[in-house]
Input
Amino acid sequence: MNKTVELKNLYIKAGDNTLVNKASLMIEEGEIFGLVGESGSGKTLTAKAIINLLPKGLTYSADEIITAGKNILTASNKEKKEHIGKNIGYIPQNTVFYLHPMLKIKNQIADGYIYHMHKTKKEALEKAEALLSKVGFKSPKTVLNYYPWQLSGGMRQRCNIAMALMNDPKLIIADEPTTALDTTVQRQVMELFKAINEEMKLSILLISHDLGLVKHYSHSLGVMYAGQIVESGYTKTVFSRPKHPYTQLLIKIIPSLEIRKNEPLTEIPGFVKDKGRDSNGCLFYNRCPEAMDICEVKVKEHMDDNEDHYYRCNLE
Ligand SMILES: Nc1ncnc2c1ncn2[C@@H]1O[C@H](COP(=O)(O)OP(=O)(O)O)[C@@H](O)[C@H]1O
Ligand SMILES: [Mg+2]
Output
């Protein structure tokens, strides 16, 4: 299987403070990969490192960052910008309010396409119209002439998705794309991502704190905790045989297949560690019902190559 993303041993720091510690993930061509974890666990920063958009003041290192066949670590700044602009569509967190309120949709949906693909405005608007129709608008011409405030949250998110598709990307990164939407619209938007994934064969990195949603829509997933991926693998495998106590607890607290609204994962007592993320021990130690003394100082990594199932825990 070809990979759309190969990320190995990513570290992100703010000065001496470790925010992301040795995160690795692989996204296969054509799959939806769910990155799930509580708020503050490092999902957004990990995605931003992949697309070279880390905020100023943060530093990172990694053994490998390959996206859509290109090694990002050895590429020049110009190459990176071009490659990412053409091949990766990004829907940042809170984009329901991301579109510029004073500009009509037609004056912002096509900018990236004109810039990266060297197209005329006319060509770009034709493409935008086709994509708006693809994401479910009955009269895309009318939508092009709207200001964002004339659209509902769900409609704006559809516009964002159309915008992310303009350059025929190999990968879409959608950061909490349905968090601000109510349950019915959330479902519709997720069904749209699913249809796009199936029809256009592109990969999707779906970031969410909602394990129910990730269970339903992803082929593979990574569970993040305090800046680390504590478990990853095919969604079916992880749900049928979760290995990490954190994953087991998460699975226990999601109502079966019911997609929940917007709640952070607060059912597990305690907080995600903010400091000391560079520890060699298990970062879930202070909240883990099965913690042993050893877990504070050391943790074992397991990789079952047959199943691509990874987890870090001292339990076998
Ligand atoms: N620009 C920044 N400077 C310093 N710390 C940051 C910055 N951005 C995020 N962080 C910290 O990094 C951690 C991970 O953040 P983030 O990736 O946004 O988490 P998530 O998306 O999982 O909610 C959090 O503890 C957050 O406070
Ligand atoms: Mg985030």
